[in-house]
Amino acid sequence: MFSGLNSFIKYILPKRLFYRALIIVAAPTIILQIIITIVFYDSIWIKANKNITRSLVAQLKTIEEVYETTKIDMWFLHQIKMLCSQKYDVPLLELKENGFSDFQIARSTQISVDKVRSMRIKKKILPSYKLVDTCSAEFKAKTPYCYSTYDHENEIKPIEGKKVIILGGGPNRIGQGIEFDYCCVQAVFGLRELGYKTIMVNCNPETVSTDFDLVDRLYFEPVTFEDVMSIIDFENPDGVLVQFGGQTPLKISNQLSNAGAPIKGTSPINIDVAEDREKFGKILNKLNISCPTYGTGKSLEEVVSVADRIGYPVLARPSYVLGGRAMEIVYSQDQLIDYISRSADVTSGHPILIDQFLENAFEFDVDALCDGEEVHIGAIMQHIEEAGIHSGDSACVLPPYQIKSETIIEIEKITALLAIELNVVGLINIQFAYKDDNLFVLEVNPRASRTVPFVSKSTNVPLARIASQLAVGKKLKEYDLTRWDTISHIAIKEAVLPFNKFPAESIFLSPEMKSTGEVMGISDTFGLSFYKATLSAGIELPGEGEIFISVIDEDKFKIISIARGFKELGFKIIATEGTSKELKKNGIPTNTVYKVGEGRPNIVDRIKNNKINLVVNTCLLYTSPSPRDGLLSRMPSSA
Question: Which of 217, 303, 414, 613 fits 545 for a cystine, CB–CB 3.0-4.6 Å?
Answer without folding.
Answer: 613
